[in-house]
Design goal:
By secondary structure, this protein is mostly helical. The chain contains twelve helices and no strands. Helix 8 packs across helix 10.
Length: 289
């Protein structure tokens, strides 16, 4: 994920990530079992096994093969959630993480998402050209890649540790997610950035941001472990499926814990980041600390 930093469970004073890593190990074993059951006839079919299983028809009676597939897939989903839950506990518990008091997980994510919301609100009030001029820049001659790099820099945490790396990666992917909406005209770029203040769009961005943020924390240590056992292609494939599972759990809401819409146009939106992050953590860890 673009970082050579790793969690070090054996170092005194650092969290013990062992239980979180163990859950991911079981999740990978689930994926390997699914690969053995589901035909691997072509790249498109084998690229996302979990998605194939979830799209299976729902007959009144399942075949023995379908029962096995669903059982393994449920185990995969459950172990990914357990891994996140154990990550939260190892980082100081849900309350500390949700309020940004934990410097291990939560603090940088909340800060960078706050920077993002502040930046979008400033552009909404000043216009993109006005926002750039305040920074001594001009919109003239700039493509979306140039503007997105400026936006990423404005939102990123400048202190680089494991938590900041995860948050900065998440905000980078947030802006990359807007690529399909951009047609490179300055009016279109401004229109897309202004549209983010639409409650539903911003809700989706926040949910995905924190999903990527949590995933990067898991992958910082676990990817290296996988690379010792599997080819890089397999590692990328497995981690992609874990990432999609985390984001899916957040977007769909596990156990009915879904996000709500708010008016993002003002201080209410900034305050809601903490509440939303807490809701997301509840998806994975609904026990009281």
């Amino acid at each position: 994920m673009g970082t050579s930093q790793r969690h070090s469970p054996s170092v005194a004073g650092q969290p013990n990530w062992g239980k979180s890593s163990n859950s991911l190990t079981v999740a990978i074993k689930n994926l390997k079992k699914l690969e053995e059951i589901i035909p691997d006839d072509n790249d498109e079919q084998s690229s996302d096994i979990v998605e194939q299983i979830q799209s299976l028809p729902q007959p009144v009676r399942y075949t023995s093969s379908e029962k096995q597939i669903r059982k393994i897939n449920n185990s995969f989903s459950r172990n990914v959630r357990y891994s996140v839950k154990r990550l939260i506990k190892a980082s100081g518990g849900k309350k500390n993480v949700a309020t940004g008091k934990s410097r291990v997980l939560g603090h940088a994510g909340i800060a960078v998402m706050g920077n993002f919301l502040n930046t979008i609100l400033e552009i909404h009030q000043q216009g993109l050209d006005g926002w750039l001029k305040i920074k001594g820049l001009t919109l003239e001659g700039k493509k979306w890649e140039d503007i997105s790099n400026i936006l990423i820099e404005a939102c990123s945490d400048k202190v680089i540790g494991l938590d900041e790396t995860a948050a900065n990666q998440a905000i980078t992917e947030t802006f990359e997610g807007l690529n399909d909406m951009i047609n490179e005209t300055s009016s279109n770029i401004e229109e897309v950035l202004q549209s983010i203040l639409n409650g539903q769009k911003l809700q989706e961005i926040i949910d995905k941001f924190f999903g990527v943020y949590i995933f990067v924390h898991l992958s910082q240590n676990f990817t290296e472990k996988l690379e010792k056992k599997y080819a890089q292609e397999k590692v990328n494939k497995y981690m992609k499926q874990i990432k999609e599972q985390i984001i899916s759990d957040i977007q769909e809401g596990v156990n009915g814990s879904k996000s709500i819409n708010v008016d993002w146009n003002g201080d209410e939106g900034k305050k809601f980041i903490l509440e939303e992050f807490n809701k997301i953590l509840n998806i994975f860890d609904n026990d009281e600390d």
